[in-house]
Design a protein that fits this description.
Pfam families: Glucosamine_iso
Low-confidence stretches: none
Structural class: alpha/beta
Bound molecules: ligand LXAUTJHC
Strand order of the largest sheet: 1-9-8-5-2-3
Largest sheet: 6 strands, parallel
Protein name: 6-phosphogluconolactonase
EC number: 3.1.1.31
Catalytic activity: 6-phospho-D-glucono-1,5-lactone + H2O = 6-phospho-D-gluconate + H(+)
Family: Belongs to the glucosamine/galactosamine-6-phosphate isomerase family. 6-phosphogluconolactonase subfamily.
Length: 260
């Protein structure tokens, strides 16, 4: 487990811009080193804010978008093109504006796709897609993502791993169908904690007053079943990117020196 590092920005706009700049650098470095990069996107307000900031950043042209693999940490199990789907929102915020290779855009299945309403089959298919992309150099049944981003929900959920639900207890499968999520829609697909932990870097995004309690709980030693964000960490780095409002309830001892 890599201990969390915290960076606190003045407000959510600056946080989104700084995180977008950080992501550009990370992708460019990975592409320079290996020829390609892989990023796992998150849904939610903070994830989409970051993508919109990236779309507006002139430095986005430093990325070779055709050599970037995109995956999702979770998806709302809704019909293709539904405005509430995370992939629809990501397309609007950024993806439609850059030259991606469609074969490298790994959206999670929709509820009107090949698996119909069977979310468990859809989750298994996404697990198989991840396994097929994992190489011998990877540490398991998912690729070693360069960066995996997670928006932190006000209840400490990440991806679609909600406190106390079966999905957050999963230790074998890499992707699961989620039933009965407390946040609509109730049916979702999610990476599990073991899949999340295969990433080189995990970035948790939390901006806004409504994330303050969740950040404080997750960073104060809570268990991952009760506070899923506490169980999200990367193999090389775990980075919490916060704004001042989301950091406002952190214990003083956790507050980064530069922000004190
Ligand atoms: O439903 C979801 O919510 C979380 C957090 O969203 P936010 O709007 O509270 O920031 C998000 O991370 C997840 O991907 C999404 O499906």
């Amino acid at each position: 487990m890599t201990p969390p590092q915290l960076v606190v920005h003045r407000d959510k706009e600056l946080m989104a811009q700084a995180a977008a700049a950080r992501l550009i650098t990370r992708i460019v470095d990975a592409q320079a080193a290996r020829g390609h990069a892989s990023v796992v996107l998150t849904g939610g307000r903070n994830g989409n804010g970051l993508l919109a900031a990236l779309a507006a950043a002139p430095a986005r042209d430093a990325v070779d978008w055709t050599r970037l693999d995109l995956w999702w940490g979770d998806e709302r199990f809704l019909p293709e093109g539904d405005p509430e789907r995370n992939v629809t929102q990501a397309r609007e915020a950024l993806l439609d504006a850059v030259e991606l290779d469609p074969a490298r855009v790994h959206a999670m299945p929709a509820s009107d796709g090949p698996y119909g309403k069977n979310v468990d089959d859809a989750a298994a298919a996404y697990a198989a897609e991840l396994a097929a992309a994992a190489g011998p150099e990877d540490h398991g049944r998912v690729p070693s993502f360069d960066v995996l981003m997670l928006g932190v929900g006000p209840d400490t959920h990440v991806a679609s791993l909600f406190p106390e639900l079966p999905a957050v207890r999963e230790t074998e499968r890499t992707v699961v169908g989620v039933h009965g999520a407390p946040k609509p829609p109730p049916v979702r697909i999610s990476l599990t904690l073991p899949a999340i932990r295969a990433a080189r870097e995990v970035w948790l995004l939390a901006a806004g007053e409504d994330k303050a309690e969740a950040a404080a709980i997750a960073l104060s030693g809570a268990g991952e079943i009760q506070a899923p964000a506490a169980g999200a960490y990367g193999r090389s780095r775990t980075l919490w990117l916060l704004d001042a409002a989301a950091a406002s309830q952190l214990p003083r001892a956790l507050y980064p020196p530069a922000s004190a």
